[in-house]
Design brief:
The complex is a heterodimer. By secondary structure, chain A is an all-alpha fold. Chain A has a single domain, classed as Orthogonal Bundle (MetI-like fold), CATH 1.10.3720. Chain A has 26 helices and no strands. In chain A, helix 13 runs antiparallel to helix 14. Chain A is globular. The N terminus of chain A is likely disordered. Among the domains of chain B are: 180 residues, Periplasmic binding protein-like II (D-Maltodextrin-Binding Protein, domain 2), CATH 3.40.190.10; 117 residues, no CATH class. The N terminus of chain B is likely disordered. In chain B, strands 1, 2, 3, 4, 7, 8, 9, 10, 11, 12 and 13 form an 11-stranded mixed beta sheet that branches. A two-stranded antiparallel sheet of chain B has the order 5-6. Chain B is 49% helix and 15% strand. The chains are: A mainly alpha, B alpha/beta. At the A-B interface, helix 3, helix 6, helix 20 and helix 25 of A face helix 2, strand 2, helix 3, helix 4 and helix 5 of B.
Chain lengths: 570, 448
């Protein structure tokens, strides 16, 4: 906080508006992120018996083989997931923005859907399809006598994670590609640059902000992710180790919190490295007339190849959904390539029992995502366009939320807000559903923030200067010039925040205080704990996917129409 | 005959008790229940209870056992929960130790003191058993057929080479029920031999899951063939139509699943009524539903059960072979969990490699006997079975202190930190498994 305190001279130089916004955001982050987390992790720095400050727990961390092995495994898995996710995202993003491609919007929307695969069941579906005795391997063994270990150990984690998180790269990269000034490409072509060289030397470097934003998100997310390794029973990674320690009864050991601190530090390092990579480069383009790369028609043969690649990738990334759909209609699916028979009864069950979950989810996730894009845009603006002292810290602190395991945040909220009674009713504040919204907003803020930052990086500040020279006030400039130009990035941020908040579980599970306030992920969790609940759980998962998918598609359509009306697109 | 009479008397007593209670004052308001039980069980009880007591609204909060305990601890200062309802007795012990439960003596009569060798209720009345469960082996019949595996019957069967890479279990540190299974084997066979059995079975593990339900889930879907599970997971999976079967080994413990009233419960009257309802004949019958399938603690209820339903009160062999000592279990609770994690869960690859080598060497030696090779394999087996701590050390409060001590006072010195102890054990296991593998490989060369 001290870094945010403005000196007298500083105050004189800046306008009050940004400063007020900065202070409000800082307060929000302090109250709902820093305080709860510190409440939990200070244990890491305490001597277990005396309570005095110590670093011996960190020494223990580095002396422990298991923790070091977990550390390297986490690192390896995250790096490999970025590689595989890039291989999936690059063709989709490039082909759909670069060429006249029928159903480009559909492909882009479908490409986002993996993000909204609810926890628990995504990996269940993948096991059913690609596991040792999943559909693919059973068929392979039956017909060809061999099987492929897709899902064994770390490979399984990499496979599932890259399918799950590649949309981060896809969304941010597509947004960047769409914002590249066509003039750049045309000048390059005029100078004789074509084909892959054009892509490598001009297009890709110009799209770098989006790619780096997406890739760093994937890296951190995988580094920090808990659900997938746990479901695949891979325990020797950092996040599972932290979770297993923190949530076990009777183990009042500080190591779980030490690992949480290590996770936070590593994620901050990854962010810092990605910021370094972008430093000193100017990606802003002045013109908006072009509105993205020139789309060209493909030759028939190229067309076949392109459709082939896109289809292959789509089938792969939608595999969890295909598996889930089958599961939701299946009577019994056990050690066989396909279910024994199909039924509609699971949908019946869900329809009767779960309406409340769905409305709650829509409410919580959209409020959280709205909060995220507002704060995300504000922070991006403060960081990139103002000279406020300590503005970078807003960015760092907000991004640190990415590295805070959901359980830690959940426990922190309980510790911070449980003894605070709510006005009028006197019930504990932590039981109020809005607290859950704040928890979701904090946890998903980094996605929105990265997307908004990337979007603003591509808007040249000379446009704002021009507007101000013409007499527009700062506020008017922001609302009429900056925000509309950032709309693609803001939408990307909203969609990622919304979609992922809708299926968040780890903080939710600590904070739900009554069934009538529970969101969908909680309902899924409850279903998935019993043999008879698998079918209804899958059906509820399908509902989640459809609702969020529909929401995504609709907002995409609305924004596209807005762009067209403003004449930004052709 | 006398049992039936007993049952009738119990039923009458309950009717009497509940009718007087109804006359006295039927409870009303919201009843908040934190539970780890699946929806199938909770919603069945919820509906039945609300039918009997329409003025009460039951709110079910589903948390896994550990998260539930954590939740009650974190919210104790401003408690809003009336009941805690879960399987593992030791979770209730933790709550009792933290002074978070409230004593209540159920009005229902006719419930025996013991099921198998385990007491049904907490002696101090802090929580009451309402359903019994035993641990056993569950398998997927399609999987077994496809892999030509015979059905296992005893724990020791699971150590056979034929089951290599086919068995799954959940980590005892993550699942109270698995902890009891491991502890039962340790108490039934003794510390050294029990760990030998546990590790020989572990050599055949396909995976160690983090949730108890992960095991039946995997067996149901066929991702592995055999699981070590609590009975109702298997029975309810079977009832849902999955091609699975289940057997109780001789060495098993029947343990009650429990319900307890939380201290400072906002709606104490309704909480007490709920406890009585769960134990009443009406409530106990709910347990027989196909999707639930738990063993009632009220012996009279078995009269209404299907023919092949296991009955621990009639079948005396069930769960009686081990006299389960709760105190021994309590004293080394965390040590056993940590040992399992450090020696097995986090060293599974090394352990499996050693086991594989031993199996291969033994198979080769069976064809071409060789005295030296046999001795080497025996040494390898001993290396795998070796433990870094003895039974006496495991029960030593000094060692247990490394796992439990909170900051009570500045003078409370702990000899070693948990992370140090664990590192020592892990290194011990790693070294031994590598040495065992080497010896088994030497034996294999001799047998060729």
């Amino acid at each position: 906080m001290t870094s945010l305190a403005l000196s007298r001279e500083g105050l004189a130089r800046v306008r009050p508006g940004p400063a007020v916004a900065a202070v409000l955001i800082a307060l929000f982050l302090l109250l709902f992120l820093v305080v709860p987390v510190v409440q939990v992790i200070f244990v890491a720095f305490q001597d277990k018996t005396t309570g005095a400050f110590t670093l011996v727990n960190f020494a223990d961390f580095f002396r422990n083989d298991l923790f070091m092995r977990s550390f390297w495994n986490s690192f390896y898995v995250s790096a490999m997931s970025v590689v595989v996710a890039s291989l999936l995202a690059l063709p989709l993003a490039y082909l759909t923005t670069r060429f006249e491609f029928r159903g480009a919007v559909l492909i882009q929307s479908l490409g986002i859907i993996p993000l909204i695969m609810p926890p628990f069941i995504g990996a269940v579906a993948m096991q059913l399809l690609f596991g040792r005795n999943g559909t693919v391997n059973l068929l392979l063994r039956e017909h060809f006598g061999f099987s492929i270990p897709f899902m064994e150990g770390l490979n399984g984690v990499i496979f599932v994670q890259s399918i799950h998180y590649f949309p981060f790269i896809l969304i941010n990269l597509s947004a960047s590609l769409k914002n590249i000034d066509r003039a750049m490409e045309e000048s390059a072509q005029n100078l004789g640059c074509h084909g892959f060289r054009l892509f490598r030397r001009i297009v890709f470097p110009l799209a770098m902000p989006g790619y780096v934003a997406g890739a760093s998100l994937v890296f951190i997310k995988v580094f920090d992710d808990l659900g997938t390794p746990l479901l695949l029973n891979v325990n020797d990674m950092l996040a599972p180790q932290a979770y297993l320690r923190i949530s076990s009864i009777g183990i009042s050991d500080p190591m779980g919190y030490v690992i949480s601190v290590v996770l936070i530090v590593c994620s901050l390092l990854a962010l810092w490295v990605s910021a370094l990579a972008m430093k000193g480069k100017d990606y802003a383009t002045v013109q908006r007339g072009g509105g993205g790369l020139a789309r060209r028609r493909m030759k028939p043969l190229e067309m076949v190849a392109a459709y082939g690649v896109v289809l292959l990738i789509l089938v792969l990334v939608l595999a969890p959904h295909i598996g889930l759909t089958l599961l939701s209609f299946a009577t019994i699916w056990s050690f066989s390539p396909f279910p024994d028979a199909l039924t509609l009864k699971h949908y019946d069950t869900v329809f009767v029992e779960s309406g409340q979950y769905i409305t709650n989810t829509l409410l919580y996730a959209s409020l959280a995502a709205l909060l995220d894009v507002v704060i995300g845009t504000a922070i991006a603006y403060l960081v990139l366009r103002t000279k406020l002292a300590g503005r970078q810290w807003l960015d760092y602190v907000a991004m640190a939320a990415l590295a805070v395991p959901g359980v830690v945040l959940g426990i922190g909220y309980l510790r911070s807000f449980y003894d605070v009674p709510m006005p009028f009713t006197g019930q504990p504040l932590s039981g109020f559903w809005l607290i859950l919204v704040f928890a979701l907003a904090i946890r998903r803020l980094p996605y929105a923030l990265r997307a908004c930052t990337a979007a603003l990086q591509q808007v040249s500040s000379s446009l704002e200067e021009a507007a101000e020279n013409l007499g527009a006030t700062k506020l008017r400039t922001i609302s009429r010039v900056v925000v509309p130009l950032m709309s693609g990035g803001i939408l990307a941020g909203f969609v990622t925040s919304f979609a992922t908040a809708a299926v968040e579980l780890s903080a939710t599970i600590m904070l739900v205080h009554s069934q009538s306030d529970a969101p969908l992920a909680y309902g899924l969790y409850v279903y998935m704990q019993s043999a008879a609940g698998r079918g209804p759980g899958a059906a509820l998962g399908i509902f989640a996917v459809i609702i969020v998918g529909l929401g995504t598609y609709l907002s995409h359509v609305i924004i596209e129409r807005g762009r067209r009306e403003r004449g930004q697109d052709h | 005959m006398s049992r039936t009479l007993h049952g009738v008397a119990a039923a009458l007593a309950v009717m009497l008790a509940s009718s007087t209670a109804a006359f006295a004052q039927d409870p009303s308001g919201k009843l908040v229940v934190v539970t780890s039980f699946p929806k199938d069980l909770t919603s069945a009880f919820q509906q039945a209870f609300q039918k009997a007591h329409p003025k009460v609204t039951v709110e079910i909060l589903n948390r896994n056992t550990n998260a539930g305990v954590k939740y009650l601890q974190e919210t104790a200062s401003n408690n809003g929960t009336d009941l805690f309802w879960a399987s593992a007795p030791d979770a209730f012990e933790v709550l009792k130790g933290a002074n978070l439960l409230q004593a209540y003596k159920p009005k229902v009569e006719g419930i025996p003191d013991k099921v198998g060798a385990y007491p049904v209720n907490d002696p101090e009345g802090m929580y009451a058993g309402f359903a019994a469960s035993g641990y056993g082996i569950m398998w997927n019949t399609r999987y077994m057929k496809a892999n030509n595996l015979p059905a296992p019957k005893e724990w020791s069967d699971l150590a056979k080479p034929i089951y290599y890479d086919h068995v799954a279990i959940s980590a005892p540190s993550r699942s109270g029920t698995t902890h009891l299974t491991i502890e039962t084997i340790l108490q039934g066979e003794g510390w050294e031999k029990g760990w030998r059995t546990n590790k020989e079975i572990a050599g055949n593990y396909r995976t160690i899951t983090e949730r108890s339900f992960g095991v039946p889930d995997g067996v149901n879907s066929g991702s592995f063939g055999i699981g070590i599970v609590i009975d109702f997971f298997a029975l309810s999976s079977q009832a849902s139509g999955f091609p699975v079967e289940f057997a109780y080994p001789t060495v098993t413990t029947i343990v009650p699943a429990n319900i307890g009233i939380v201290k400072n419960a906002p709606n104490k009257a309704a909480a007490e009524t709920f406890v009585d309802f769960v134990l009443s004949p009406q409530g106990q019958e709910v347990l027989l539903q196909p999707a639930i399938r738990r063993l009632p603690v009220n012996p009279a209820t078995y009269a209404k059960a299907p023919a092949d339903y296991p009955n621990p009160f009639k079948d005396k062999s069930l769960g009686a072979s081990v006299n389960f000592d709760v105190e021994v279990s309590q004293a080394r609770y965390n040590v056993v969990d940590a040992l399992f994690d450090q020696l097995i869960t986090f060293q599974l690859d090394d352990l499996k490699a050693a086991t594989r080598a031993i199996h291969q060497a033994e198979a080769a030696l069976a064809k071409k006997p060789n005295e030296k090779g046999k001795a080497l394999v025996a040494e390898a087996r001993d290396l795998v079975a070796a433990m870094p701590v003895t039974a006496a050390e495991a029960a030593d409060p000094q060692l247990a202190g490394a796992f439990t001590v909170e900051r009570k006072s500045a003078t409370d010195a702990v000899p070693e930190r948990q992370a140090q102890v664990e590192q020592k054990w892990a290194a011990f296991a790693k070294e031994n498994y590598a040495a065992a593998r080497k010896k088994a490989e030497e034996a294999l060369v001799l047998a060729r």
